[in-house]
Amino acid sequence: MLNNKILSCGLTGNFGFFHTKISILYGTNIVSGLNYKKKGSLYLNLPIFSSSYKSVKITKCKISIIFIPSYFCKNIIIENIYSGIKIIVCISEDITLYDMLKIKFFCNKYNILFIGPNSPGIIIPFYKIRLGIFPIKNIIIGNLFIFSRSGTLTYKAIKLSRKNKLGQSLCLGIGGDIIIGLNIKKFFSYFINFNLTKNILIIGEIGSTIENQFLKYKKKKIFFFISGIFSPLKTTMGHSGAINNKFNDILKKIKKIKKYFLILNNLNEINLIK
Fold first, then answer.
1. Is 19 designated active site?
2. Residue 23 confidence (pLDDT)
3. Domain boundaries, position 136
4. Catalytic residue of the set 130, 149, 239, 253
5. Which of 88, 169, 212, 214 has the most CB atoms lying inside 10 A of its own CB?
6. What's the structural domain count of the chain?
């Protein structure tokens, strides 16, 4: 992943253009854009292709970043997969459940690493890789891997990690929609031996079981922060994936995690991570 070229799907739109420009200035190796209506044109001095296949064939890109409206995501993502893209980072939110089930099916079938949807993306400061919408003001090279379901809390953790001179080795927003595409085992097959990472901060919340996949992990030092402890049952909080219910009660989750790891009472306790 660290040396691969990147296709920006949605580069020609205002949102995609803005964040692609920031990523390029940061140092990310984005080489092309995708828009069949604007094929042959240049945006940010990057060629715009009519299809993922042509972009992969000509530029040899293996990663795509998705900035397009959710209605079009399924077809573009499946086209990415068939064209040879191996890693897909989806910023778009509110992809329908049916479309996400199809996307997950194809990602599993073709062994694709999919991050999102409704994700701020991923940033790796040491390698100047920014795939998504992370603000770079507080990004500094360090040894803390921040893994979060909430984009806003990720940004706060980044700011506090800089303030406490921890820095970041890698920051990942897994996505806030009800169905996310991330395969934890596949993601860690890429990054689990990432030498720059000393500690991992997992920011969990209501409505998710993904934290449970870390309970028996011992290769790195892990710290947790779980938000939403006072949230009412059966009420969506913030985004569609954040809902507390009797099948995944947050207090039971915290009790289970406490058996294995330290849970921060609030993110200001990030200074406890050493």
1. no
2. 98
3. 6-272
4. 239
5. 88
6. 1
